[in-house]
């Protein structure tokens, strides 16, 4: 839209609003209103005829082309898979010879049908689609004229309303007289423009409707009979399509089972088949080392010495960057812990762990952490936390260094789990994280 057209649309906007809500006086021509309704119907029918005929034309051509490609694909499937490039007989079909021949015969039938239907499809293109497209171009021009006529009507009604408003004034000034004279000229000019387009459409649209009866309606009938010819041609060709490889009289499911044979069982025996249809449980795709050995034993709270020197020298998660700080021992430890490395560790436990690790046979699987720890509770015994500890499992007790914990149950070994109470919360914690206050 040009800038001038935009200005006109802004000026006409109030009058369009009044016309939409039926405010004020509006010009109405019953003859043109009836012609406009018939023209809208013609426009809709022509567009529908053009679109549907084009879809039908593309559908028939697409169906035949897809059938040919389907035959070629089935031929490739029936051919054997050979990777012997140096073999001169590698391209010789040693597979399903009958199936390949049947696919080639079907492809020839479809190509013959495509050649037979080519004149009918060309007739649809030349006698339906192309004329409908040309008629749509004519309708677009008429629609532009109708839109222009609507704009002139808005200008005509707008100038008439302005003139009437000026004429109804009882006391007129010189400025009002000048405005009235200008409004009369605008009304006269808008009247001529509106009448020109209005009379033009009223005269020409009936002629178009007369031509419609001679063009559009026979066009619909021709398209109907063209479709009948295509349908009967397809029916006759496919009805007499006799390929011995396919038994069209047999039941579909029974014929499929007979053709399939034991192909399903043979395919399921292949190791590359992902899905099984026989209901048997499929073995794991990739067997992990030790997958059939059962669950691995849990680590002891006081494990023996590491089997590799790297494990003894590698940094641990609980170690900190500053070497001067005191590091808390791990609550779940798999590395050797000695009395020299930490004063809170019992030396008896370290020697016992070293003796167990020195044996040639692996240690027995440890028992899970007991939910109830044995021992005689001490009513008033308390301990002080040496390090911060965050709960690692449900039922653990979290605390910070310096917190005083009331002992509920404990064991003689500091490297085992004790039960305590802090701030009204009860839970388990490692005994080597605290020191006794007694």
Automatic annotation (TrEMBL):
Coiled coil: 149-176
Entry keyword set: Coiled coil, Phosphoprotein, SH3 domain
Membrane-traversing stretches: none
One Gene Ontology cellular component: mating projection tip
Keyword Phosphoprotein: yes
Domain BAR, first and last residues per copy: 17-269
Low complexity composition-biased segments: 347-360
Domain SH3 positions: 378-438
GO biological process: actin cortical patch localization; endocytosis; plasma membrane tubulation
Entry superkingdom: Eukaryota
InterPro entries reported for this sequence: AH/BAR_dom_sf, BAR_dom, BIN3/RVS161-like, SH3-like_dom_sf, SH3_domain
Annotated stretches, region: Disordered: 280-376
Molecular function in Gene Ontology: lipid binding
Protein's recorded name: BAR domain-containing protein
Organism of provenance: Cercophora scortea
